[in-house]
Write a structure and sequence with these properties.
There is one protein chain. This protein is of the alpha+beta class. 24% of the residues lie in helices and 12% in strands. The chain is built from eight helices and six strands; from the N terminus they run αααβαααββαβββα. The strands form two sheets. The chain has a four-stranded antiparallel β-sheet with strand order 2-3-1-6. The longest helix has 19 residues. The model has no long low-confidence stretch (mean pLDDT 91).
C-alpha cells in the first residue's frame, strides 16, 4: 500500500482519507458492478433489475454511492461529442494492440494483460498455483479510479496564460489557448498528435497512433514537449532507463465522463471514471503513474536539473518541492525555452481508487453456480 501511494501520489485533497467524498471507507468496497445500456431509460431499467436481485439474495449487500449528486452513483454523462472529456480533449485513442501471444516479450502481448501466463522474460506475479490460480487465470487486474477534473481552474489557467504567451508566439489569444492545450497533452483537442501535426490539428491525423519520437525526429521536444501527458504515459521509442530497464509498459484504458459540463452546472462534481487494465498493477499501472508524478524515466530529462511533472495529471502536493520542477517548459524552434512558471494548478484530484480482479468468463460461470 505504501509503495502504491508513493507511485500514485494521492496526497492533499486526493488523499485516501478523502476518497468517496467520505461517504464510506475504501475497505468497504468489495465489488464493483458495471452496467451498460444504449440509453438512459434502459440504464435505469438495468439498475432496477440489479437492485431487485440484490434485495432477493441472502447476502448482506449494501450499495455504496460515492457522489454528492441526486443518485449518488457514478453515472456516465454523455458529453457532445461523446468521445470527448470535460477538458474537451478527444479520449481513448491510443491502446495496445494485444498481440495474440501468451509467451512473448512485447509489452503488447497477451501475457502482459491476462493472468496466468508468466514467463522468464515477463514474470507476471501470481497467483500461479492452487485453486486461486485456476480462478484468476485469463482474468486481469483493474485499477478502478475516480478522477475529479477542475474544469474551472483549467479554463482560467489557459485564458491567463494565453494573454502572456500570445505575443511571444505571435498568435491570437484564441489560437494560443489551443496551442497550449496541445502542448500540455501532446495532442490537439481533436486528437491529432503534435509529432505528426505540429502546426495545427488535422482531421487526417485525429486518431493516429502510428508514430514515434525518435523516428519522427522529435528528440529535442520541439514538436511535443517531453513532459506532455501522452508522451509521459507512452514514451514509445524515446528511450527509457529506469533501474536498468528499457521497457515501456502498456495499459488498456477505458474512461468515461461523469457529471455535467461547466456550462450546465458550475458547481457540479465532474471528472473521469477510469479503468486501467493490466496483468501486473505494480510494473504497469503504478510504474506509469510514477512517471506522471516524476519525469525521471528517460535520458531526455537531465538528472542534474529538478524533476519535472506531467502538467495535466500529476499531483503537485506531497513531493519534495525542492527536487521538483514546478514549471512547465516548452522547447522552441529558436533554441530558447518558453517557461510557464509554476506551481501549476491542481487540475486532477483523485476521488477514489479500488484495485479489482476482472474474472474470466469461465470464472464468472463458476461464481454463478454458487448463487
Amino acid at each position: 500500500a505504501n509503495n502504491a501511494q508513493q507511485s500514485l501520489g494521492d496526497y492533499g485533497a486526493g488523499d485516501p482519507s478523502e476518497w468517496w467524498n467520505k461517504k464510506f471507507k475504501n475497505d468497504e468496497v468489495h465489488c464493483i458492478v458495471h452496467t451498460y445500456a444504449m440509453n438512459p431509460g434502459a440504464q435505469d431499467r438495468i439498475t432496477e433489475i440489479i437492485g431487485a436481485a440484490v434485495a432477493k439474495s441472502d447476502a448482506k449487500v449494501k450499495e455504496l454511492k460515492p457522489l454528492l449528486s441526486e443518485t449518488g452513483r457514478l453515472e456516465q454523462y454523455l458529453l457532445v461529442p461523446s468521445d470527448f472529456i470535460h477538458f474537451r480533449y478527444r479520449d481513448s485513442i491510443d491502446e495496445p494492440n494485444l498481440n495474440d501471444d501468451p509467451a512473448g516479450e512485447d509489452q503488447q502481448d497477451l501475457n502482459n494483460f491476462l493472468i496466468g501466463y508468466s514467463t522468464l522474460q515477463n514474470p507476471i506475479p501470481g497467483p500461479l498455483s492452487g485453486p486461486e490460480a485456476k480462478f484468476a487465470k485469463n482474468g486481469c487486474y483493474n485499477a478502478f479510479r475516480i478522477l475529479y477534473q477542475d474544469t474551472e481552474a483549467f479554463y482560467t489557467f489557459l485564458e491567463k496564460q494565453a494573454v502572456i504567451i500570445a505575443p511571444q508566439i505571435k498568435q491570437t489569444e484564441e489560437f494560443t489557448i489551443e496551442w497550449l492545450v496541445a502542448k500540455l497533452c501532446g495532442r490537439w483537442r481533436n486528437g491529432s498528435p503534435l509529432v505528426l501535426s505540429p502546426e495545427k490539428p488535422e482531421q487526417s491525423t485525429s486518431k493516429s497512433t502510428d508514430f514515434m519520437y525518435l523516428a519522427n525526429d522529435d528528440m529535442k521536444g520541439l514538436k511535443c514537449p517531453f513532459s506532455a501527458h501522452t508522451r509521459v504515459s507512452n514514451p514509445r521509442d524515446e528511450g527509457v532507463d529506469v533501474a536498468g530497464s528499457t521497457t515501456v509498459p502498456r495499459l488498456l484504458r477505458r474512461g468515461m465522463a461523469y457529471g455535467p459540463p461547466l456550462s450546465v452546472d458550475a458547481n457540479a462534481d465532474r471528472g473521469l471514471i477510469g479503468m486501467f487494465l493490466c496483468g501486473d498493477l505494480n510494473t504497469q499501472f503504478e510504474t506509469i503513474y510514477g512517471w506522471i508524478n516524476m519525469n525521471n524515466f528517460s535520458d531526455v530529462f537531465n538528472p542534474a536539473n529538478k524533476t519535472p511533472q506531467d502538467p495535466l495529471v500529476a499531483n503537485r502536493i506531497g513531493f519534495e518541492q525542492g527536487n521538483i520542477d514546478i514549471d512547465f517548459t516548452i522547447p522552441m524552434e529558436d533554441g530558447t525555452n518558453l517557461v510557464i512558471e509554476g506551481p501549476l494548478p491542481q487540475f486532477i484530484v483523485t476521488r477514489g481508487t479500488a484495485y479489482c480482479l476482472l474474472p474470466s468468463v469461465s470464472s464468472l460461470r463458476e461464481i454463478a453456480t454458487f448463487v
